[in-house]
Amino acid sequence: MKAQRIHLAWAVLLAAGCGENVGFVVRPVPLEQKLVETEVARGRGLFPPKVAVIDVDGLLLNRREKGLLTVGENPVSLFVEKLDKAAADPSVRAVVLRINSPGGGVTASDVMYRRLVRFRRQREVPVVAAFEDVGASGAYYLACGADAIVAHPTTVTGSIGVLVQTVSFAGTMDMLGIEAQAVTSGKHKDMASPLKPLTKDDLAILQGIVDEFYGRFVEVVAAGRPNLSAEQVRQLADGRVYTGEQAKANGLVDEVGDLLAAIALARKLAEAEDAKVVMYHRPWGSKANVHSAAPSMPGQINLVNIDASSLAHVAGPQFLYLWTGRR
């Protein structure tokens, strides 16, 4: 079986390499896939405490990212794995979430938020969320589980609200003379099917779910931003986005600054000014400093980092805490 796999791998390589100016790069890949820790900023003393920087990038969906001939990470699973590693290390005195995300699924965002709140309760160490390019919708939802939020001056944040996108091909099918008939156990079983238009009852049902999830979002923000009442949050939560400065003026973030400012705040809150800074990554992901990027970045659409392959999964009915870039 092992020999067959080797022969198959060589066959794929040879088929892919049948072209002009094509070469091969062969490099060893570690068999151990567990997260490893890299020091990216030195501390003071022989055994200094740690500030762990945890990346949250791209769409927050509870599934593996997929690309051409590759299978990536599940963002929810990876986040939990990194939090668990920080929780198991008694020398970690603070955590900085470096967030660059437009949000994602309602459930994925909520799962990550709950795990963050549990981490803070169990470890009793400060957590600072640091927004870079984007920290919107579900990403902002997650950040509300931190002790403080620092936004870069050019951050786009906010977009507090819920979206469920539906598509109907019924009109086009009528033009082509195509008829779809579903046999269901109830009149709403095929609700939001792309093969039929939404009825008024369907819209009312979906709106009720959206309103419930919106109320949950408002509660999470109000709990994480004690300076804002639920009513004040609702006034800000009409789906619009804010710059870092605007978010600070409206009480949605605590400070305007860069990642280094967020790390400095984490050290201060932890009373660990001598702490070193560490990051977690797979064995093949080298990290040179705190600004080291994730292994791959998705393409940009409407100023937001959105992986085009991920959009195919969002095309079906799905409740989202997501900024789509329209506003």
Observed structural traits:
single chain; 327 residues; alpha/beta; 2-enoyl-CoA Hydratase, Chain A, domain 1; 16 strands
Characterize the structure shown.
The longest helix is centred in the middle third of the chain and has 25 residues, at 200-224. It contains ten helices and 16 strands. The protein has one domain: 2-enoyl-CoA Hydratase, Chain A, domain 1, CATH 3.90.226. The termini are far apart. The model is unreliable at 294-315 (pLDDT under 50). Helix 2 (75-87) packs parallel to helix 3 (106-123). It is α/β, with parallel strands linked by helices and 327 residues long. Strands 1, 2, 5, 7, 8, 9, 11, 12 and 13 form a nine-stranded mixed beta sheet that branches. Strands 6-16-10 form a three-stranded antiparallel beta sheet.
- What is the CATH domain class? Alpha Beta
Q: What's the CATH architecture?
A: Alpha-Beta Complex
CATH fold-type name: 2-enoyl-CoA Hydratase, Chain A, domain 1
Instruction: Average the pLDDT over all residues and give the rounded result.
Output: 82
Distance between the termini: 54 Å
| Coarse morphology | globular
Strand content: 15-25%
The helix/strand order is HEEEEHEEHEHEEEHHHEHEHEEEHE
Helix content estimate: 25-40%
What are the low-pLDDT stretches, counting only 5+ consecutive residues below 50? Answer: 294-315
Name of the CATH homologous superfamily: 2-enoyl-CoA Hydratase, Chain A, domain 1
- When the domains are counted, the total is 1
Sum this structure up briefly.
With 327 residues, the chain is α/β, with parallel strands linked by helices. The chain has helices spanning 2-16, 75-87, 106-123, 138-143, 170-176, 200-224, 230-236, 244-249, 259-270, 308-314; strands at residues 36-41, 50-57, 66-67, 70-71, 92-101, 103-105, 127-136, 148-151, 156-158, 163-164, 241-243, 255-256, 276-281, 300-301, 304-305, 319-322.
